């Protein structure tokens, strides 16, 4: 295609990629993005008319000032977000620049605005879709900058823009160069860990609403949540103590006070634990046991709660946050809801949790008023039980066998919620079962508390992690067993898990895996990942070194070389030697190609101009670095009546050969030879 169309296509693609990145955040003002994208796309339908702007230069400053004023109004009265107001301002400036392109600096400013649109998108979204816009921008930017450089050189030398055709080879070659730059960027990314800048990060405007993770929860509030398929978190498990068949209870908050209609957490304030070395919080409540440790890497979506989830009991946590709260009942939380996706790691030794402060135990025996009938039911169920464990097992089994699981249980307002469940409706969901068991245990003299969180989740075989959804929200019971601690009991019938709908397919699993890995190893790449990567490279090097050592030993044995320890080939030195030989050979080939030139005579294609410049230098005519070759020739040739005649002609040939790629023919070479000989003649 013609140069003008190729250049117009490339810079419009750069602008379009910036708009695409912003659109893929699903947070931008589409009433601005759609017209801007239409303006960019409209330009593809018409031949490029460089240097003929639509908006006059005098109006650009006024429109820019108006756009800035609009962004202030946007921030204070429309969006309320600094990042969003800045992004809207950039979209308007992009449109202004598209309509006022005239000089080289205008194109550079257009590229800068497109880049800042891309940068603003990273503050609004961390989704993997951003990667497509990212590569589109840098490929088109490479094309644009190379063509802009050619355009500028041509206008300075020849006084007009290029009129030659741009072939497929140019686009393919520059795209290949972009891949090389991307590889270098990846290497830098791996060496220098990411640093989060909270000021520019997007605060989620729509937090996922959860039930049961505040200081209070009303009985019956979780029914609607059990049908919600929204993803809450993704959890990857590892560690020597991992049991794939073990039930997974992602603990959130515990509750100690039952009012008759709901639960309250009177111990949720807790204490602050400050960040230790390498971002690790060491929790005093856990019991570190390397043989039973389970490591959970959690990617938590923005929720309307400050609670963080994990298997209990946890003995350590790592994360990007600086302060974490731990309540006496083992609830882990941040000082406030993070408002954006949170990545952290929990180290646990699943089993009974420590007893905690003795002074809190009476609070786990409190009963609401009017619990006589419930107490009689508990006494009959646990009659003859030997101790707390047997009492808990009997109550758990009784509730599982005699009550039905239902997301829409009948409700008789004449009775309290728990009496209605136990003695009348006899159906309910996890909140009803957990509340009934906790109160029956307390009535039997066993300290108990209700716990809310999530259970299980959908296993994604592509990445080996759990996808936990809103519908996996669950409540269960922790009972205090002397000598063991707080033991988990779940009286909800096991058939309840079968009622949870699932539409998880192979395609959705693969897409979710890509999203999860993008978050884990790009968005939340950290110093710990860097150290693990360096360790993996070291292990790979040692493996290769040992393999080469074995090969060299085999070669030495086959040749009958004595094993002197110092005469055999050193694998490390062999690798370095081969690398050095490859680099030297590549450099020699590159020099040979330059020296050979298109004519194949081992000379540079513009050596004729270099010879003329050397002859002029002997006469004292040396080009000032600030002048172009053609400017220099225009000064030199008129300064002499005959000796320097033809300098302008040779310089024009030089520009044609260098920038146009068309070599000299036989007649031109003879004429150039005559000009050079005349300059050097005594």
Plain-language structure description:
By secondary structure, the chain is of the alpha+beta class. It contains 18 helices and 19 strands. It has helices at residues 3-23, 30-44, 57-78, 82-98, 104-124, 130-157, 168-191, 372-382, 388-402, 417-425, 430-443, 506-523, 527-558, 571-596, 607-618, 629-636, 647-660, 666-680, and strands at 216-218, 231-238, 249-255, 257-258, 262-264, 271-274, 280-282, 294-300, 314-319, 323-326, 332-333, 342-348, 404-405, 427-428, 448-455, 458-460, 465-469, 473-481, 485-489. The strands form five sheets. It has a seven-stranded antiparallel β-sheet, with helices on one face. The chain has a four-stranded antiparallel β-sheet with strand order 3-15-18-19, with helices on one face. Helix 1 packs antiparallel against helix 6 and helix 4 (82-98) packs antiparallel against helix 5. The longest helix is centred in the C-terminal third of the chain and has 32 residues, at 527-558. The protein is elongated. It starts with a helix and ends with a helix.
Kindly report the oligomeric state of this protein.
single chain
Average pLDDT metric? 80
- The order of strands across the largest sheet is 7-9-12-8-2-17-16
Number of helices: 18
Largest sheet: 7 strands, antiparallel
| Envelope shape | elongated
**Radius of gyration computed on alpha carbons:** 37 Å
N-end to C-end Cα span: 50 Å
**What is the count of β-strands?**
19
Share of residues in strands: 5-15%
Which structural class fits the helix and strand makeup?
A: alpha+beta
What percentage of residues falls in helices of 4 or more residues?
40-55%
Low-pLDDT windows of residues: 196-205, 564-569, 597-602
